[in-house]
Amino acid sequence: MSLPTVGVVVLAWQDEPYLADCIDAVLASTGVDVRVVLVDNGCRPADLDAVGPDPRVEIVVPGTNTGFAGGCNLGAEKLETDFLALVNSDCIVAPDALELLAAEAEDESVGPVMASIRLADSPDLLNSAGNPVHLVGLSWAGEMNMPERRTEPFDVTGASGACLLLRRALWTELGGFDEEYFAYLEDTELSLRCWRLGLSARCVPTAVALHHYEFSRNAHKMYLLERNRLQMLATLWGRRSLLVLAPVLLATEVLLLVYALASGWGAGKLRGWVWMWHHRAHVAERRRAVQAEKLRPDSEWMLRLTPELDAQAFGPVTPVANVFFRAYWGAVRRLL
After folding, report:
1. Closest by alpha carbon to 310, among 100, 91, 133?
2. pLDDT averaged over the chain?
3. Tell me: the pLDDT tens digits for 178-188?
4. CA-to-CA dists, residue 274 to 55, 223, 230, 232, 271, angstroms
5. Are 179 and 70 in contact (CB under 8 A)?
6. Residue-wise over 226-238: b if at least 16 C-beta within 10 A, else e?
7. Average pLDDT over residues 75-80
8. E strands of the chain, at which residues?
């Protein structure tokens, strides 16, 4: 019997010290027939040259930084395989990881499937076991720094794009990523769209990917995260849901603006609002498209959302905020 074919997209931008190790690990995968498209978004030449020649690897040079969303779409266009995988350039997949992910994603009731993303420096600890999504659109790496003791696949709200696989036909049906996201939350949007179609996002804890993770919080990243959160809310959340959640959404905007100003990225927060206005035609068109494809009502798929923020991600104000969010969500959820 022929092995399932997996097309893997890897992006390279600026310094990529783990790129060659990432590609080597993908090519060493067992139980699958692998093809790799490496998208050079402006990688340091020495890091790109470190990738050894292999007929299974195609390098694509768009000539500009296409971002994560655009780069993944570009790479996917080059692949006609049974499955499509996205692997971060600083992720090292275990030999059987892609095979285990493909076996889970073969089920047509399943959407994107993610690996167990472990910290490369502490492989027994998680970097992410799925990304929770808050009712106001915030998302974070779930179960960070915790040990993984599960052995069976489980549902997650957001499958992390650090190491993600899905059926190639499903990727085509979804149209890939919205390239206006550029970077951050496009994997979350893809996962939520699948939940709205009645497809689960899953994590396979035995499919391990070691991530050379470095936490960063700079003004440009925070701008993209906030802008994309607003775009996701404006397109995926139903009209009734937006009305029901309006008080908590408005309160969140005010609090985030105050936090952004205090943290030095207030201009980025304001730029997100400006971007939403200037791109209102795209947002409206995107909203029409994703609302039309929805097969599950908000009252069903939004049960995947959580009113609980994670203290690791959001700091000492979390317990107080969670009391408010839990009370509000409990009071209005039945109105969706």
Report:
1. 133
2. 97
3. 999 999 999 99
4. 46, 11, 11, 16, 5
5. yes
6. bbbbbbbbbbbbb
7. 98
8. 5-14, 33-43, 57-60, 83-87, 91-93, 110-119, 122-128, 154-156, 163-167, 200-211
Q: Which two tokens stand for residue 92?
A: 């090292």
Instruction: Say if residue 123 is exposed, middle or buried (CB neighbours under 10 Å; 0-12, 13-18, 19+).
Output: middle
Structure tokens at 281: 């035609």
Site of tokens 């494809």: 293
The kind and range of the H/E element at 224 are: helix 219-236
Q: Residue 299: count other Cβ atoms within 10 Å of its Cβ.
A: 14
DSSP helix/strand/coil, 54: coil
Q: Which tens digit of pLDDT belongs to each residue from 153-168?
A: 999 999 999 999 999 9
Whole-model pTM: value is 0.97
Is residue 67 within 8 A of residue 149, CB to CB? The reply is no
Q: What is the pLDDT of residues 248-262, one digit of tens each?
A: 999 999 999 999 999
pLDDT tens string 93-118: 999 999 999 999 999 999 999 999 99
CA Rg value for the chain: 19
Q: Count CB atoms within 10 A of the CB of residue 145.
A: 11
CA distance 200 to 180: 25
SS3 116: strand
Q: What is the DSSP string of 70-113?
A: HHHHHHHHT--SSEEEEE-TTEEE-TTHHHHHHHHHTSTTEEEE
Cβ atoms of residues 41 and 12 within 8 Å: yes
